[in-house]
What does this fold into?
Amino acid sequence: MNARFWLAGGLIVMLASGSWPAMPSVDAASWVPPPFTTLRAGAFNTLTHQLPINVVFVGYEENDGPRDIKRQDFLAELSATSCTRKRAPAAYGLNAPTGLCFHFDYNIVFADQAFEDALFARLAGLAKAGPRTLYQDQYNEGSVFSHRSINGPDPPLFLGS
It folds into this structure.
C-alpha cells in the first residue's frame, strides 16, 4: 500500500511540475506513416533470415584420417541457403515459393574428451538390455542387405533385391 501511495504521489508531482517529457505535437493532416520495409501491398516479397546452426561432433576428431572429419569437406556438402515453398503445388512440378529464405551460418564444434567421456558414461547408465528387434535379427542374418551380382563390366554392379 505504501509503495502504491509513493508511486502515485510521485507521478502526480511529475505531472504537476511539468517534468514529464513533452510529446511533440503532430498535425493529423500532415502525418505520414513510416514506410513498410517488409510487406508491400500487391507485391511478392521474399524475407531472408540469417540462421545460425551449430554442428557438434561427439566421438570424432578434426583430422585427415580415414575415420576423422575434414571440416572443409563436411561444409562443402551442406547447403548455404534454402527457400521454402508450398508442398502441394510442388507435388505437381509447380514452383510455389512462400517468400521465406534462410542463409545458413554453420558453427562446427568438436567436443573435447571430457565431454565425450561424460556423455558416453551417462548413456551407458541410461541403457537397458532388451530383446533384439525383428529388423536387428534380419540385419544379423544378412537378409536386409542381400545382394545379387550381374555379369557385366568390371567392377561388378550390385543391385539390392
Notes: The chain has five helices and five strands. The CA atoms of residues 15 and 23 lie 13 Å apart.
